[in-house]
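User: Hello! My lab partner asked me to get a predicted holo structure for this protein. The small molecule is zinc ion, SMILES included with the sequence. Please write out the structure tokens.
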Amino acid sequence: MNTEIKLKLEKLALSKSIPFCYSCYHECPSGRCNSCGTDDLMQLLPGVACDYGIDWIIESILETELTAVNLDEEFEESIRQCYEETTKIGWMNLDTISVMKSHDPISWSSAQSEWESMEAEEGNIVSFDNGSTYYRMYDIENLLEELELQTP
Ligand SMILES: [Zn+2]
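Assistant: Hello! Below are the structure tokens for the protein in complex with zinc ion.
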């Protein structure tokens, strides 16, 4: 993904969380524990959790600030734009998408997975939890801009 955005999100995550020594069980704002001297610290996100790593903090911030992408809906919408709304089968005019989905759900879901990886590769959507939740890059960029305006 876009490195600049990733760095900004990491910076944001660090500014919202506090280094925490789990062995001594206290906060270490300096980045080093003043009791045992370690710099192998967890990050405490007040009211949420305390853990190693930073992606979970980014995920938690995005979850609070943004609406996750509804992949089912968006994929369906993108397909709707490519085909006729209804398809005639025999004498019946049926909703094209509904027929496709119910006739061959496996083909539908594999096309959806391909579409998801393509969107992710192109950087339109991004995930911080290994693909179970996606956010729109556009929304993330707007959020970062808003936050930058708030902090001079
Ligand atoms: Zn310590």
